[in-house]
Each structure stands twice: as C-alpha cells, then as structure tokens.
Amino acid sequence: MKFGFDIDDTLLNLREHAFRVYNVKLNRQVGIEVFQALKTIPIHDAFGLSAEEGKELWNLHRDEIYYSAPPFDQAVEVLQELDRQGHEIYYVTARTAVHCARTKDALVIAGFPVHEERFYCGMADAEKVHILRKLDLDYYFDDKPAVLETLSELDMRVYAKDNPYNTHLDLPRIVNWSELLEIANNSWQGLSDDSMTIE
Ligand SMILES: [Mg+2]
C-alpha cells in the first residue's frame, strides 16, 4: 500500500515545540494548558501578540523550530514498521523550497524511512491535491483543514492527525500513531479477503 504523510503537526510536533521555544525566547512561562486550549494554527495569541508580531517571531526562529521539532510519539517507529512490511511511504510537505533538502536530511536523522523519490516539498497548500492525485496513494494523513478540505474527491483514504483546530472536520482521525499499524493490518486483510470496502 502507498501511505502519504504531511510533516509539520502530522509527524513532527511543531506547534507545541514552537510554543516552548517562544517561551524561552520571550522569557515567559505561559502554561502548556494555554497552548492546549488554542483553536488556531498560529500560536501568537497565547503570548498576547498580534498576528504581525507573531509572524515576525516565527520568521526569526523558524529555522531553529523546524530542525529541532521532535516527532510525535510512535511516529518514527510506526513508519519504520510500515517500511519493513513493504509499504511505500511518501512525504508531502509545503515547507518552502529553500528548506526541502535540510528537511529531508532531518527526517533521515530522526529515523524516518525516506526514499529519495518519495519526498515532495515546496508546493502551496492548494497544490497538494494535484500531487496527491498523481501519486495515487491509498492513504494520506494531514492536520491542516485548508488541505484536508480539498481532498474529498480523491479516491484515497484521508485521515486527520487530531489537533484542536481540526476537530470540526468529519474525517477519521489519528490521535496516536500506534493506531496506524492496525489500520494497515486491516487493509492487508481486506485485500486478501478480496474485500475493498472496509472503512
Ligand atoms: Mg501540517
């Protein structure tokens, strides 16, 4: 099977990491519960910053945040296992072109199974749908409503990586990556039973 993954806030815990970095940079101690209550992708509200100030802070520390954000629990282990089982793993990230090579290297260093020809980077959110259509994936995982909302016409199983800002989407969701092994196993069974209709 072919599995596709967004990176930021799907495989990497980017926002929460950015929240921790901002606390350090701003010499603040905003509690994690403030972060957890945020319903927006941007996190500047937690620090009482305007959108413009938030953007400035993000631009200032983006590189540090990108390349030090940790994977979500079990993400590396589960993708390694899928790779061992012979599944194809694709990465599809809207990080800008200047970050593509470093991002791929960082995934490898973190332990993710990366094949050179299965790493797609540098497209706009709205362009992801076109790339995903060409890849002809069986499964795709993303966190962002602006992306997820464009994928309903594709013949592919789309999951939301559960985040407070996407709970309104009527999609199956992944809370912990350990759930994915069961999904993959069920889909193998579905194939061997010649039943393609399991959901
Ligand atoms: Mg994302």
Automatic annotation (TrEMBL):
Please indicate which superkingdom the organism of origin belongs to: Bacteria
- One biological-process term from Gene Ontology? deoxyribonucleotide catabolic process
InterPro entries documented for this protein: 5'(3')-deoxyribonucleotidase, 5_3-deoxyribonucleotidase-like, HAD-like_sf, HAD_sf, Nucleotidase_putative
Q: Which Pfam families match?
A: NT5C
Q: Name one GO molecular function term.
A: 5'-nucleotidase activity
- Keyword Hydrolase recorded: yes
Name the residues annotated as catalytic in the UniProt entry.
6 (nucleophile), 8 (proton donor)
- Which SUPFAM superfamilies did the record assign? HAD-like (SSF56784)
Per UniProt, the enzyme's principal EC class comes to: hydrolase
Question: Would I find Hydrolase among this entry's keywords?
Answer: yes
Q: What is its EC number?
A: 3.1.3.-
Keyword annotations from UniProtKB, A to Z = Hydrolase
The family classification in the record reads: Belongs to the 5'(3')-deoxyribonucleotidase family.
Name of the molecule in the record: Nucleotidase
Source species, please? Cohnella herbarum
